[in-house]
Amino acid sequence: MNIFLRNGLIFTSILLIAGVTGCSKDSANVEDEDPDGDITLSLFGADMHSQWDNMDSPVSQIVKEETGVTLNAEFDVNGGDQKISLMAASGDYPDLILPKGNASTLVDSGALLDLTNLIDEHAPNLKKIYGDYYDRLKWSNEDESIYILATPPVDQTYWQPGTGFMLQHDVVEELGYPDIRTVQDFEDAIKEYKDKNPTIDGQPTIGLSLLADDWRIMISTTDPAAFATGSTGDGEFYVDPETYEAKLHYRRSEEKDYFRWLNHMNDIDLLDPESFVQKYDQYLAKISSGRILGLIDSDWQVGEAQRSLREAGMEGRMHGMYPVTLTEDFKHPNFQDTGYLGGWGIGISVDCENPVRAIKFLDYLASDEAQILQNWGIEGEHYTIEDGKRVISEEEMDERDNNANYQKQTGIGVLKGFAPAYGDGVEDSTGQTYTIASPEQIKDSYTDKEKEVLGEYGAELWKDLYPQEDEFPAKPWGAAYNMAVPSGSSLELTLQRCLDIMKRKIPEAILADPNDFDKVWDEFMTELEGAGVEEAEKEYTELIKSRVELWGGS
Question: Does residue 271 have a pLDDT over 70?
Fold first, then answer.
């Protein structure tokens, strides 16, 4: 399945651009049943939304007043795969759908409107915000319809790493701020601290904990193997930057060595024995207890637990993010440029009785007014204007940084993921940025302990510890994780078989007796070959090349 974001959006999956034409209703032939009055639109999101406010917050109330639209939303906790498949089978769809990696299932079942004409006629703000990237919304070379409005931020400047090896501040402080550059450095720090501190607050200290709850195994267990061996975030694939040849990334020999290291961590009792059985909520609760020294994860996945530690006054038990790789021969590619990513976002279904109102609602969210509202809040309540500039008071910023329910209570940012947004660093017509994020704001948001740790490493931002964007070439295919494999295709079925094998064999290899690791790994590779992985990789390569062609020059 992000994100991830990538960098908070983000999130991994094995999806790719479909070279098939969906049979969705033409947007030129739809009219609203209720063009003027207040309406309610149903919405399904494939990701959970812990801050959903039911549109009752002050900011969401303004959105309702401006648009006449209320959302009746449902959010899935399991990535949406099953529910979207059921939608496609039944032919019964909500008005708006955020399908994450399952857009092809909806397109192939004729569930989504082609939004091209709706955008042309009713959505000037959407066209403005996408700008030169508008062509990246096209579905494929064979079908240039627009079924999904991509929701990643446009022209984003990244000031924070989204993924890496995470180590408690207390650990590096007690050990005198050692270099944390390789997995060996990471291991040594955890081992030394755990030996000195076998318990924390009366509970056994855990060295490293991983998460393998359903699709989250890709975020905390398999994706890091790619990053730690110099490969960028392309879901389950490694893409050769010269030939665009794709292969399942854990079939690389470098990654076998990474998983052998995890096997070693388990053998010396530094790996949480519950790593492959714990559920997501158990994982977060364990992190929030302050007794897990090390994590290998994405910021968005553990953010709730980090906020809990901060709220509890356990600043030293919060985790810093380090660009750890298998050896110093590799550079962590967190900041490699993908360009603007189409693919994942929001669509309007053929069952929507008010498609014009729906596109106008999304267009409003893309407007300057709504962008400022979603980022800054309400003037006079969440910020003031001083000398023509928006200013957030120290008290309000402290509330933003420390109140885990700030978003839900105010509505600031609640709807931000439902439409495209200007990225950090993009300026509005007044010369101010649409978002509040800046290096200064980020530094101000750090705890005193974070600032102290970063200062000891000669840095002001966690980004300063990482290889920078200009050290890597841009990726012309973007990110493979947000492409859509044709639903029901032999490629989709093969990749699912490979995923099922991976979910079973990688934990088995990590937990095996070290003397049996090679045997289990060889069985893993043999099973993948038997499932047809090599043919699937060839097909995937062609789809990567198709995307490069589709996006050429954009």
Answer: yes
